[in-house]
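Q: Here's a chain of 654 amino acids. Please give me its 3D structure as C-alpha cells.
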Amino acid sequence: MNLEGQAETRPGLSWKTLLAIFFAVFVIQPIIIYYSLITNIALPMQAWIVILLWTELARALGAPLSRQEVFILISFQTMATAYALAFVTPIKNMYYSTSPESQAFGIIRYVPSWWAPPASEAVQILSRKWIFLQPSISVPISIMLVSIAFSVAMDIALGYFSYNVYARVQKLEFPMAKAVVQTIITLAEREKRSFRVLMLSFLLGAFYNSFTTFFPFLLGPYLSTGGAADPSMYFVTSPIASSFDLTTFLANFIPGAGLAFTMNMVPYIMGFILPLWVGIAQFIGAFAFYFIGTHMITRMNLWPVESAYSSSWPIFTLVQRSQLYFYISVTIGLTLAATFIPLALRPRVLTQAFKGFLSKGTSNTNVDRSPLRLSMLLFFLASAGLTATVHFLAPAFPIYILILFIMGGSFFTSLLSVGVAGISFSGFNIPYQRELIIYTSGYQGRDVWFAGGPYAPMAMSTNSASIAQNLMQADICRVSHNEYFKAYIIVVALGMFSSFLFVSLFWNIAPIPSGAYPATISLWPIDAMDWARTQQWVWTGYLFRFDLIMWSFIIGSIITFAANFILKNPLVLLALVSSTNMYNLPWWGDPISVGMAMMIGSIVANKVLSPRFGKAFDALKGNFFMGVTLGWGFMEVLKSILILIGRSMWILPF
C-alpha cells in the first residue's frame, strides 16, 4: 500500500535485515519458549538489545545499516517472536480441559473437541512422540492457523485505515512512535550529539537498574532463597526504586482511598515525551479511579460479601479487587463513550478518511483512494472469514451478533486503540468485550465461549495500533508501505513455523507438562484454577454490572462533550481511560504512582526543560528516553539469563 506523494522510498528489506529476522525467529524464539516452560512468565527480551548488537556488528564489518534497514529491524524484532508460544497454546488448552480444576467446576463436560481433544484421547497423546501429527489435536491446530491468518489480514487492513484517520487526517503526535524514530535515525546516521545522548542515557539506565533492581535480585533472592528458581522474585527492587504505599495509613482517615508514589526514575522519564495535557489527564483518571472511586465504594459499603474491605489492603490489592468487582464494567462504559462520542462530535474525521475511498484519485486530505479501498476489501474478507469460522463451530449462535462483534467491534475498537496510541504510549482494548457480547445475547450454549481467547476466531483486531504507528514511522524513515507489509507477512509465517518446530522438539525431549519443565507442574495448575474460575464468572455474568456500564457511558459522554466545547479537545476521555492500563506496569508501580510520575515528568519537560533549552531538548528527549529504556532493558535481559540458568538446573541429577 504505497502512498502517493510519500517521499522517495529506499529498500529496507535487505539480506542484512532478513538475517537479523532469522536470528530472532530461530535463535531467540526457542529461548522464549523454553523460558516460558520453566518460569511461566514472558522473557523480557528487549528487541532493541538485538538491534544495538546488529547495528554495531554491521558497522564493524564495513556494511552499516541504513535508517530503512534499522526501521525494518525494530519493527519486526518483537514481531518475530510474537508467535513463539502459538503451538504451546493447544497443549495448554488440552491441559486446562482435562485438569482437576476443570472437573471440579464441571467445565470438562462442555469442552468441544475442536478446542481440545477429549480426556480419553489426551492420555494417549501424552505417550506419542510427534504431538502435532495426532489426528485429535489437528482440528484445534487447524482452527488456530485459520484464525491467525484472518486476524493478521484484519490487523493490517484496520491498521492502515486507522493510520489514515489519526496520523494523516487528525495528525496526532504518537509520542512513542516519534521517540523510536529519533533513535532509529540516530543509530543509522550517527549524528554526534544525538548518538552521545543515546549512549550516555543507555549507560545511565543500565547503571540505575544495576543498583535498584539487578544487584538486589542477585544478592538477595537469587543467592539466598533461590530467586532463579522462583520467578516471583523477578520484580525485587531496592527501596530507592520502590513504590511507597500510603494506603494503609490513609485507611484510618479515608478508608478505601489508594495513594502511593514511586522513586523509580523510569516513569518520570517516560513523562518527558508525553504532551502535558495527556500526563495531567492520565493522573486525574488514576486518582479518580483508585482514590476517590474506591473511597466512595468503601463509604457506601458496596464491596461484595466474599471480598469485604479491610484496612490492611495495600494499593495493589485495592486496585485488583476494584478492577474485578467494579472497574471492568466502568471501563467498558467509558471506553464505549471514548470511542463513539468523539466520532459523533467530529464526523469529519471519518468522512475525510473515507473521502479517498469514495473519490477518484488522491484527495486533498492526503488519503489515497486505491490503497484505502484495498484495505477495506481486505478487512471485509478477513472479518467475514472469522465470522464464518465461528458460525461453523457454533452454528446456533446468532450470526448477526457475530457480524456486529467481529466486523463492527473490530472497526471501532481499532479506532479507540490507535487513538490512545496517538496521545500516549500504546494502544488500548476494551476489557471482556467478547464475554459481554455473548452473555447479553442470551445464548444458553457453551460452545461459543471456547471460540475466543489467544489465536481463536472470535476476536477483534488487536495489533492495529502497532501497525498504524509503524506506518507513520515508515513515512519518516522513507520506507515503502508495500515493503513493510511484505516483511510483516514473512515474519508471521517464519514465526509460526519456528513455534511449530521448537515446541515439537521440546515435546520430543520430554512431554509437556513434565518435570523437565518446572513451570508446567508447579504453576500451570494455578493457571488452570484461574481459567476455570474465570469461565464460571463470565458464564454467570458475575463480572458485568450493566448499571455501571450505562452510567459510565453517560458520564463519559458528558466529559467528552465538555472537553470538546470547553477545551476544544474531544480526546481527553481517551487519556483518562488509558490510566487504567498502567496496572500492566507492576515493576514501576501502581496506576496512581505511575500516573503521578508521568505527570511530573511531563510538567518538568514541558514547563522547565523545553522553555529553557528549546528545540535542542525537543530534538533529543526521544533519544534520552529510549536510551534509559534500553539500558534498563539490557540489565533485565541479564537477570532473565540468570533465571534461565538457575531453573534449567532443575533436572540435573545433583
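Q: Can you summarize the key feature?
A: The first strand starts at residue 243 and ends at 245.
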